[in-house]
Amino acid sequence: MLLLLFLLAGLAAGLCRGGSLRRAAAFPLRGLWLPLAAYLLKALGGAIGVPPLPLCLAQYGLLLLFCWFNRCQPRWCAPFALGTALNFAVIAANGGRMPVAARLAAGWPALADRLAAGGVSGYTLAGASTRLAFLGDWVAVAPFGRLLGFASPGDFLLGLGAAVLAYRMVRPPAEKTEQKL
Prior knowledge:
By secondary structure, this protein is mainly α. The protein has one domain. It contains eight helices and four strands, in the order αααααβααβββα. The strands form two sheets. The protein has a two-stranded parallel sheet. It has a two-stranded antiparallel sheet with strand order 3-4. A hairpin with a 7-residue loop joins strand 3 and strand 4.
């Protein structure tokens, strides 16, 4: 959900600056199907019973491959790749599950109970044995008091990369400046 908000913010910024959705079709982006497949895999993987660690490897492998294909566009790709790597590191270090800070989850007791019981696919409640907890989810995304999810530092970097990508896809053409001789 947070990634979608960042994408929409990037699109809105590009359009407000005079950009056009038509420009997005001409943007040199390679392998767009990779992040789409990664997020589809995340959405369906837990439901069809794929174990968390192989699911994490497949999902983040697809995202990193997308970054590799677009490495010549570092303005958006660098933060996207770094966020992907940070999320992969914390999830892989915790058996394929993203740890959620216990103090944060405590604000939603029913969810905290489900996390503690392992009832939320791909997530776990952070505890004493959690590795790289500082890279886990410790920010609540709850506009108007309605919980949309939790976010990690990697999520914010991924989001920043996605927002810059969306902006650059629709932005107006760069104006040519005349050089004074």
